[in-house]
Write the structure tokens for this entry.
Amino acid sequence: MAEFIYTMKKVRKAHGDKVILDDVTLSFYPGAKIGVVGRTGR
């Protein structure tokens, strides 16, 4: 199996006091199609 081309470790994202992501790890394989879907928070 191919190695990851990109890895994000222990990601944390907040918008003001609201935590959106906490301690998230993502890894991507070559050629992978990635999508993030959700509300804009407005």
The longest strand covers residues 18-28. The mean pLDDT is 89. The two ends are 41 Å apart (CA to CA). The beta strands are 6-15, 18-28.
